[in-house]
Design goal:
Shape: globular
Number of strands: 12
Strand content: 5-15%
Strand order of the largest sheet: 1-9-8-5-4-2-3
Length: 401
């Protein structure tokens, strides 16, 4: 759907919101926490590619790579089939594997740590800065050990991590830096785009991201040799057909995905302005919750607008979210369970004790409110009004209904 259709109420999706957005308010359409845009331009691009017969890693992919390069300071771009694949391919092509450790935040989507495990390395979890929700450089420094090969800062919710601080730690210990920028398309730190600080950066084009390609990912780097290895690895180890130089995988992006991504990329700046405008409205209007701070020099892109709900932790936050839903406002918790507590990482958790107090506190307090560019002014007023109707929440008296 288009932004215009969403604003007029002719289309709406709750996909990926984390709540059903069911409302107890008669006659009001729920405000969705996420609204992926699939408009007439995207549909036309898909049809054009399918009629061309060139549908897998062809001219559309090459054009998308070239155009995305402008967003990341002209770095080489290698398109793949997901953000996770981008992270995995970068780590693999950098030679990180069994016996290595990679420092990652536990407060992130599991893909960050999954990529580390997929190459046979071990994730080492470090705590976050409570303001940005990103890796704390001091915690990174404390986590460095003899087997540490890299650090993977996640620019969570669209707010850049402290790359100066993390960079100093990495330089001091000779570590590679792989940026997980899957939620931060177009975010900058002191004018420099995310994805350009480390050895490589990785982006996702999942449907609820700030721009999408239906699905897909992009690895970016200024290292020509790493670029070549990535291009080989994503295509079964081949540059020329049937001349396999290395053992590779099939991580190719289709031209259908690339064509959608190219349409979306052209509107990213416009949508980012809307997200920032919406965030500014929420900042000014919300009461009773802790709105997200923005660090000096940061241009936040608000993939999520994530507040903290004061009170007695997880139970109060979840009750607050449930009451918002009753008022017709969708919200989602990213992320309710830190990665180190997931069953898939239970073995690692059993082998060592993770002291991650800020991670645990964030997982118990955060709630993401609608901020997407399809929101109308009236919907923004409803978000603010519904949240403010619950003011006093966490005072011990419970949630106001």
């Amino acid at each position: 759907m288009t932004v215009e259709e969403a604003e007029s109420g002719r289309a709406r999706t709750g996909a990926g919101t984390g709540t059903s957005t069911g409302s107890d308010v008669p006659g009001e359409r729920p405000v969705a926490a996420a609204a992926p845009v699939i408009g007439s331009e995207e549909v036309a691009a898909v049809v054009r590619v399918m009629r061309s017969g060139r549908v897998v890693q062809g001219p559309e992919v090459a054009a998308f790579e070239a155009e995305f390069g402008a967003l990341v300071g002209g770095r080489h771009c290698v398109a793949v089939n997901s953000g996770t694949s981008a992270l995995y391919a970068v780590l693999h092509c950098m030679g990180i594997g069994p016996g290595d450790e990679v420092i990652v935040p536990s407060f992130s989507f599991a893909a960050s740590a999954n990529a580390v495990r997929l190459v046979g390395a071990e994730p080492v979890f470090a705590d976050i800065d409570p303001g940005s929700f990103c890796l704390d450089p001091e915690a990174v420094a404390a986590a460095v050990g003899p087997r540490t090969a890299a650090v993977m800062p996640v620019h969570l919710y669209g707010h850049p991590a402290d790359m100066a601080g993390i960079g100093r730690v990495a330089e001091r210990h000779g570590l590679a830096v792989v940026e997980d920028a899957c939620q931060a398309h177009g975010a900058t730190l002191h004018g420099r785009p995310v994805g350009t600080f480390g050895t490589a950066g990785c982006f996702s084009f999942y449907p609820t991201k700030n721009m999408h390609a239906l699905e897909g990912g992009m690895a970016v780097t200024e290292d020509r040799e790493l670029t070549r290895r990535l291009r080989l690895f994503r295509n079964q180890g081949m540059e020329q057909r049937y001349r396999n130089e290395v053992v590779g995988a099939n991580l190719r992006m289709t031209d259908v995905n690339a064509a959608v991504g190219r349409v979306q990329l052209r509107r990213l700046e416009e949508w980012t302005k809307r997200r920032r405008r919406n965030a500014k409205t929420l900042d000014a209007g919300l009461r009773g919750v802790v709105v997200p701070p923005v660090a000096a020099g940061v241009e936040h892109v608000y993939h999520q607008y994530t507040v903290r709900v004061p009170g007695n932790g997880r139970a109060d936050r979840d009750a607050f979210a449930a009451q918002l839903e009753r008022r017709g406002v969708g919200g989602a918790v990213y992320y309710p369970v830190p990665i180190h507590r997931l069953p898939s990482f239970a073995e690692a958790a059993a082998s060592r004790t993770w002291e991650l107090p800020e991670t645990e506190r964030a997982a118990a307090e955060v709630l993401s409110l609608p901020v997407h560019p399809s929101l109308s002014d009236e919907e923004l007023r409803r978000v603010v009004g519904a949240a403010n109707a619950l003011c006093g929440f966490g005072s011990g008296a419970g949630v106001r209904s």
